[in-house]
C-alpha cells in the first residue's frame, strides 16, 4: 500500500524535469524548465526551501547529489550547454564550478562511486561525454570523450565500484586499483560501456538492441554477485536488461523486459537493485521485480485516491 | 525465462495522468513522483519550437499548480504506527531466540519448542490487538478510530491465519487431536456471538430469554457440550413436560465420543464407538422422540451431522470455516490432515452458496487447509501491507524444515527473500533500523550486502547515532562503511568548524588527505590567534600522528610548545630545529618556527649550540633567498624587520656560544 507522506509544492513556474532525494532522504532537489534548481529540507514530512539556485539559462534537465563525504554538493545540467556544480558552504548554497565545454544541451549527469573521488560524468547532445574530476582546492580537471555517440548522448550511468579480484582490505593509505566503468546511451540507438585505461577512457562495449534513440541507461547497484546488470530504455518503447556474467566484462546479453506502447524515458534501480522503475510516455510508472516461477507476488494493494488519480500500474504481459 | 511483473496498480492520489507523464526517482526509503512532460528541446530547432508552442498554447491555466508538486511516496507506512511498535520489537526478540535456539533437540521436544515460539508470536499479535483496541475506544477522532479498528481486524486476521498454520504445519496435528485443535481455533476466533451468550447467561431466567435456543445452538455448534447441557437443564426444570426429551438429549450429548489428547484409545476404537453412538442418535430421531420440540429436534440433527440442519444456523456460525469444523465434529471427527482439503472446499461452497464470493482471507485459509504453504505465503504477501507477517511465519516454517528451497533471482530462498524485504523496510525508520540489522545478520546470502547498502543511508543526525552505526559496522568488519561514515562525519565537523572533532574522525577514517587539510586549518588558526584549540586531542595523538606529514608536524609542533612551557629549553630547541632540518615542517611555516626560536635565542642562558645556530642561519637564508615569489620579504616592512631581528639574534647567539664553547671549564 502506498501512501503519499509529503507533497512538496516546489513553486516551480514551469515543468519539473527531475527530482532527486539526497543520500539520506532528508533533502530534495528539483530542477525545471523555469531554469532554476531548488533544494528543500523534507525531514519529518516538512518542506522548507533551502535554496533557489539560479545560473542556468535554459531548462534544467537533471540534478545529481554527490556522496555526503564530500560535503553537500549537487550537480545540474541544462539545455544551456552548461553543467553547474553547486556546494553548500557555511550554510549557503553557491555555484562552485561551471563547465561550459559542450556545444549543445547537456542531458544527463551522474556522479561516480565515491571510492573513485569526486567525478562527474556528463552526456550531451553534441555527442560528447565529459568527465569532471575534482583535484582539490576548487580545481576541476576535465576529460572529454568526443563523438561518444553520433547525434547525441542522452544518458550516463556509472558501474558500482568493485575492486577486481581481492576483497581483502587494502592497507590504509594505499588506493585500491579500481577499474572505472560507466555506461552511456545515445541517439545512435546504442548503449556503450566505457572503461578507463591508463588515464584514458576507451569504448569497451557496444550494446546493440534498440531500434531508436536510447533515452536512459541505469547500471544496477552491486549486491555482491559476479554479474553486472544494466537497464536501458528507448524511443522504440523497449526496455532491455543487459547482463554480463564474467568479471572481464566481455559478454553482455540482453533480455527484453517489456515493449511499451510509447517512448520510455527513464529507468532507475532501487538501492538494493531488486526493483526497476520504468517511466514511460504512457503516463505511468511501472515497477518490475524479477522472479522465478512467478512465485513472488507483490508488494501491495491498489490504493484508491480521491479526485484525479494517476495509476502507477502493473505492466502488461510480456511481448517477445 | 522472461522477467515477469509482480506489482499491481498502486495509485498516487492527486496526480493527474490525463495530461502529464510521471517522473520517478528512488529515495533511500521513499520514492518521488512528480508530473512532467518528457521531451527535449534539444531535438533541433523544430523540436524546440514545437515545445515552445505547446507551452504557450497550454497557457498558464493549464500549467496549473499541480504541475509544480512533487509527491513523496512511501510504500510501508506500518512501521510508523506507534501501537505496532510492540509488535516489531517483541517479535524481534522471539525471532532472535528462534535463530539461536538449540537444534540439538530432536523430534518431540524440538516440535514442542517450535510450537511455543509460534504461540509466543501469536500472543504478541494479540497483545497488539488489545492495545489497538484500547486506542480505538479511547480516541475521539473518528478518522483515527476507523484506522485503529481496521488495524484490529487486520491483526485479528493475521492471528487467525497464524493459528491455523500453527495447528496444521508447526504442530502438524494428526487425526484426532486435529479436530480438537480446530475446535479451539474456531472457539477463539468466532466472537460475534459472545455478547449474545453473555446476555442470555446473565439474565434472570435464561430459558425464558428469546435468544436462549440460539445460545444453546452456539454451544452445540462449537462442540461445547457441557455448557449446552447446563443450559438445557435449566430449560428442563422450567419446563417439566419436556423432561423426558431433555433426559435423552442430555444423555446423547454426554455420551458423544470425542477424540482425546491422551492416548487412551486408538482411532479405530474411537471410530467404532462413534459409529455406534451415531446410530443411536439416528434411532431417536427417527422414532420421533424430539418431534414435539423443533429446537431439540434440530439439535439432534446437528449431532447427526445433518448438513442442512447445520447450515440453517448460518448466522450463528458466521464463517464457512466454522461450518467446516462443525461438520467435521459431527460427521467425521477422526478426519486426517490430508482429507481436510475436500471438506474445506465443499464447506466453503455450501456456506457461501453462490451468494457471495470468497475474500482474500478465505483464499488464504483454503490454501492452508490444502497444505499449500507457498500459496499461503504468496497470498498473504499480496494482501497484507507489510512484510512482517510473511517474514516471521516463513522463518518459523523454515525452522520446521517445511519449505523446500525455491531459488529466486538472487539464488536465495524464500525465507531469506522475505526477511530481506522486511528488514529493508525497517531501515527507513529512525530507530527500528537497529532491529533490521539483526535480521540481515541472519540472512546468510545477501544479508551482509543489504546491510552494507542500507546502513550507509542512515542519516547521521547526531554523533551518538554515528557512533552507534559505526559500532555495528566495526563489529561486522565492514571497513568500507566505517571509512565512509568517518569521512562523512569529518566533513560535517569541518563545515561546522569543529576542528578537533573533524580531526579525530579523519584519523578514525585513516584519511590522510583530510587529516592534512585539518592540520593546516589548525596551524592557520594558531598563526592567527596564537594558540591551539583542542589541545587534548593533539597532545594525545600517539601513533596516529603518522597518518599524514602535516599531522605529524602539528603534533610535534604542539610538543615544542609544551616543552617550552615546561621550560625544557634545550629539548625544545632541538625539536624546533629538527622540524626544519628533517623537513617535517612545511616551508610556509618556517618563518613562524624561526620566530618561535627568537625567545630561545634571547634567553639569558645559551640554548642553541654553535652547530645548531649555524643550522638556523642556514634555514633563514634558505628561506629568504630561495623563493622568487617571496618578494614580499623585501617589500613587507614587518617581514623585513623580523628577518633583521632574527639575523641579529642569531649572530648574538653565535657570538655567545662560541665564547661558551671555547671556554675551558674551570679555567
UniProtKB/TrEMBL annotation, chain A:
Database matches in SUPFAM superfamilies: WD40 repeat-like
Pfam families: WD40
GO biological process: COPII-coated vesicle budding; mRNA transport; positive regulation of TOR signaling; protein exit from endoplasmic reticulum; protein import into nucleus
PROSITE patterns named in the record: WD_REPEATS_2 (PS50082), WD_REPEATS_REGION (PS50294)
Xref: SMART domains: WD40
UniProt entry keywords in alphabetical sequence: Lysosome, mRNA transport, Nuclear pore complex, Nucleus, Protein transport, Repeat, Translocation, Transport, WD repeat
A GO term, aspect molecular function: structural molecule activity
Signal sequence region: none
Superkingdom of origin organism: Eukaryota
Cellular-component GO terms for this entry: COPII vesicle coat; lysosomal membrane; nuclear pore outer ring
Subcellular location: Lysosome membrane; Nucleus, Nuclear pore complex
Start and stop residues of the WD repeats: 9-50, 53-96, 207-242
Family: Belongs to the WD repeat SEC13 family.
Quaternary structure and interacting proteins, as annotated: At the nuclear pore: component of the Y-shaped Nup107-160 subcomplex of the nuclear pore complex (NPC). The Nup107-160 subcomplex includes NUP160, NUP133, NUP107, NUP98, NUP85, NUP43, NUP37, SEH1 and SEC13. At the COPII coat complex: interacts with SEC31A and SEC31B. Interacts with SEC16A. Interacts with SEC16B. Component of the GATOR2 subcomplex, composed of MIOS, SEC13, SEH1L, WDR24 and WDR59. The GATOR2 complex interacts with CASTOR1 and CASTOR2; the interaction is negatively regulated by arginine.
Protein task: As a component of the GATOR2 complex, functions as an activator of the amino acid-sensing branch of the mTORC1 signaling pathway. The GATOR2 complex indirectly activates mTORC1 through the inhibition of the GATOR1 subcomplex. GATOR2 probably acts as an E3 ubiquitin-protein ligase toward GATOR1. In the presence of abundant amino acids, the GATOR2 complex mediates ubiquitination of the NPRL2 core component of the GATOR1 complex, leading to GATOR1 inactivation. In the absence of amino acids, GATOR2 is inhibited, activating the GATOR1 complex.
Name this protein carries in UniProt: Protein SEC13 homolog
Organism for this UniProt entry: Melospiza melodia (Song sparrow)
TrEMBL record, chain B:
Assembly and oligomerization: Component of the nuclear pore complex (NPC).
UniProt organism field: Donacobius atricapilla
UniProt GO cellular component terms: nuclear membrane; nuclear pore outer ring
Protein name, as recorded: Nuclear pore complex protein Nup85
BP GO annotations: mRNA export from nucleus; positive regulation of DNA-templated transcription; protein import into nucleus
Similarity annotation: Belongs to the nucleoporin Nup85 family.
Subcellular compartments: Nucleus, Nuclear pore complex
An example Gene Ontology molecular-function term: structural constituent of nuclear pore
Keywords annotated in UniProt: Membrane, mRNA transport, Nuclear pore complex, Nucleus, Protein transport, Translocation, Transport
Primary role: Functions as a component of the nuclear pore complex (NPC).
One Pfam family, short name: Nucleopor_Nup85
Signal peptide: none
